[in-house]
């Protein structure tokens, strides 16, 4: 890039006859590099200086360079001033063909300019270019993009009307007049705006796509985002950026006067704050769905009439949708609603009413993810009412007897419960009904999780189920949340046992983590918060708490002899058969010890790996006569020490295994056992 650019700059100051070689291949190479890589600010600045000042390059080379001025980053205001300053008539000005190409370039890069104020300050200069026919089309387009209410003045309206009559109602001028009429409809009257008008679409959509690709790639290389969000203190303009079919009306304020303030005039946060009480409401308030500035205005200045007007528009669309007469795609309106709720973090009742009507004609497939994302913002309310009116109809449409659809519903309820938890955490006082709503939601999802475990008993399902119960566990373990939700049910025992005996050690560890959080919550509720949980919950919880400890630590797996133990709900006849089978294998260990840390299918590899690392460390320092063959038991460790093996106590070995699991991102086992087993709790 630098070599080609340097060659072109040197050739531009020499007449063609004085150059040693033809410069056109180098110009083509530079244009190709600019197309492939884009231009950094320094290179772009040099090329702008080249094309805006007198030089000896031919017209074709200049246009070729201008056509490939792809900025890799945002364009500075200084470059805008350089380009605008070279426009017009004069001996030192570029040719009109070059000026037209530069004006077109300004139109195409207008949205990536750092500061739009440079355009606004140059408005009079650009307006004076309308007299030049060769520049008029692109000048009108650029003016339409940057026009604000303060630019619409009587002398400019008069000049446009006069010029339009002299040019035979030029479509570009007519289009600019229509932009002016949006600001002062009572002034711009007559036949001037009734003729054919330019649509002001983007001059070259392929050029724009290539620019986006270049800037996106450059932003990724710099680990930053190239796409900027909508300006929160400037109205969103869609029509002038080439959108053909408007989904939501734009912000337009008619019947404005010289003393009134409209949203179209607001461009900074200071202007918004100073004129907050004076701003006129736009024509169609449904524009609130897509315009951040209008959202802020109605948030700070709520009006019942404004809400009613927006509701009427959405009701009208709902009726058209149900009747099958709507030209707007459902996915488009859902995407707009999603953007609104994400921006405002609120789901108005009118949206719920719309979704309730929509589900009657919805196929359950189109925009499914959008529907669920919108509903995750459902405010905390009576869950049974929400279930009957919204959630169950949506479930019937989505659930198709496949695990994928069930997992989508589960993911939705997980996100919904997470938002409700955040709402409770941010509330200063106790929320009425929060406890009942949370309990009913958990009870409803319990059945869904049990169905999922039966239809799709795999690692992905276990992960999604445990994601949900991490949220329910936080309800039971957070002291502040316990003041809102005091009756959260524990997970079903069959669900806990099924996932604990799964094939994944990570799943088993996460199950232990959930149970540990519940135990801490119950202790907190009964001691600090002085909240009494029902005996049914305590008895059910203590059963699988004791069974898990029996398996992992006490070597009494599947036993129901201890208080609260249920033997993991395994039938006693099956336990007897398994015990007899294990005894016939003559492995020296009973059935109850085969689910401990040493023998467990989940953790035995970690246990023996720890022992091997300990033996290697001792062997490097002192030497060992014998190594343990595994699995490790209390008796085998004692025998090993007497024969010259590693000297390690049974308790230290088991604590070491727990620490080893923690180091491998499976801290749930250690967490549960350390708050349940007395000796571990004291050492911790």
From TrEMBL:
Question: Which named protein is this?
Answer: Mis6 domain protein
**Where found in the cell?**
Chromosome, Centromere; Nucleus
Listed A to Z, the keywords are: Centromere, Chromosome, Nucleus
Tell me, what is an example of a GO biological process annotation in this record?
A: mitotic sister chromatid segregation
Record's keyword annotation contains Nucleus:
yes
**Keyword Metal-binding attached:** no
Q: Which family does the similarity line name? A: Belongs to the CENP-I/CTF3 family.
Organism of origin = Xylaria grammica
Q: Name one GO cellular component term.
A: nucleus
What Pfam families does this protein map onto? CENP-I
């Amino acid at each position: 890039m630098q070599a080609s650019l340097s060659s072109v700059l040197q050739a531009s100051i020499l007449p063609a006859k004085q150059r040693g070689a033809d410069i056109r291949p180098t110009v083509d190479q530079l244009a190709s590099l600019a197309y492939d890589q884009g231009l950094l600010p320094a290179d772009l600045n040099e090329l702008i200086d080249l094309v805006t000042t007198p030089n000896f390059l031919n017209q074709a080379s200049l246009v070729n360079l201008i056509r490939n001025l792809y900025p890799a980053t945002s364009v500075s205001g200084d470059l805008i001033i350089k380009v605008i300053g070279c426009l017009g008539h004069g001996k030192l000005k570029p040719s009109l063909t070059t000026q037209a190409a530069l004006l077109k370039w300004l139109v195409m890069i207008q949205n990536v300019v750092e500061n739009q104020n440079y355009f606004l300050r140059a408005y009079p200069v650009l307006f004076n270019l309308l007299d030049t026919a060769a520049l008029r089309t692109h000048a009108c387009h650029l003016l339409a993009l940057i026009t604000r209410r303060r630019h619409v003045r009587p002398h400019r309206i008069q000049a446009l009307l006069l010029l339009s009559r002299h040019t035979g109602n030029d479509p570009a001028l007519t289009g600019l007049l229509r932009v002016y009429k949006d600001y002062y409809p009572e002034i711009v009257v007559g036949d001037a705006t009734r003729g054919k008008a330019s649509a002001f679409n983007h001059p070259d959509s392929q050029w724009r796509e290539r620019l986006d690709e270049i800037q996106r790639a450059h932003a990724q290389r710099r680990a930053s985002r190239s796409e900027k969000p909508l300006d929160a203190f400037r109205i969103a303009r869609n029509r002038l950026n080439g959108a053909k079919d408007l989904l939501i009306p734009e912000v337009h304020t008619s019947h404005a006067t010289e003393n009134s303030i409209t949203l179209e005039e607001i461009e900074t946060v200071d202007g918004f704050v100073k004129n907050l009480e004076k701003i006129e409401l736009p024509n169609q308030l449904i524009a609130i769905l897509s315009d951040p500035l209008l959202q802020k205005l109605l948030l700070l200045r709520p009006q019942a009439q404004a809400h009613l007007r927006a509701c009427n528009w959405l009701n009208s669309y709902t009726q058209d949708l149900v009747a099958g007469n709507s030209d707007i795609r459902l996915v488009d309106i859902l995407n707009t609603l999603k953007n609104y709720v994400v921006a405002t973090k609120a789901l108005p009742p009118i949206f719920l009413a719309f979704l309730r009507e929509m589900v009657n004609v919805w196929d359950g497939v189109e925009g499914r993810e959008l529907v669920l994302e919108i509903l995750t913002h459902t405010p905390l309310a009576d869950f049974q009412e929400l279930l009957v009116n919204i959630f169950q109809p949506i479930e019937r449409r989505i659930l198709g007897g496949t695990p994928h659809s069930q997992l989508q519903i589960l993911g939705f309820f997980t996100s919904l419960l997470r938002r409700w938890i955040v709402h409770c955490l941010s509330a200063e006082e106790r929320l009425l009904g929060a406890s009942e709503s949370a309990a009913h939601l958990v009870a409803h999802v319990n059945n869904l999780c049990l169905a999922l475990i039966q239809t799709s008993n795999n690692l992905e399902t276990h992960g999604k189920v445990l994601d949900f119960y991490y949220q329910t566990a936080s309800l039971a373990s957070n002291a502040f949340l316990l003041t809102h939700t005091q009756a959260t049910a524990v997970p079903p025992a069959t669900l806990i046992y099924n996932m604990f005996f799964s094939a994944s050690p990570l799943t088993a560890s996460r199950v232990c983590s959930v149970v540990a959080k519940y135990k801490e919550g119950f202790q907190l509720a009964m001691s600090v918060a002085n909240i009494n949980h029902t005996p049914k919950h305590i008895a059910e919880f203590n059963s699988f708490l004791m069974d898990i400890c029996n398996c992992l630590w006490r070597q009494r797996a599947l036993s129901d002899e201890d208080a609260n133990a249920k033997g993991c709900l395994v039938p006693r006849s099956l336990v007897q058969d398994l015990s007899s089978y294990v005894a016939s294998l003559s492995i020296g260990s009973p059935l109850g010890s085969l689910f401990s840390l040493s023998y467990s299918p989940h953790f035995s590899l970690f246990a023996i790996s720890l022992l091997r690392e300990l033996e290697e460390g001792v062997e490097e320092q002192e030497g060992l006569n014998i190594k343990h063959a595994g699995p490790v038991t209390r008796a085998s460790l004692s025998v090993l020490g007497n024969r010259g093996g590693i000297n390690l106590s049974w308790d230290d070995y088991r604590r070491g295994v727990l620490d080893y699991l923690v180091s491998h991102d499976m801290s749930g086992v250690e967490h549960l056992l350390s708050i349940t087993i007395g000796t571990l709790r004291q050492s911790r």
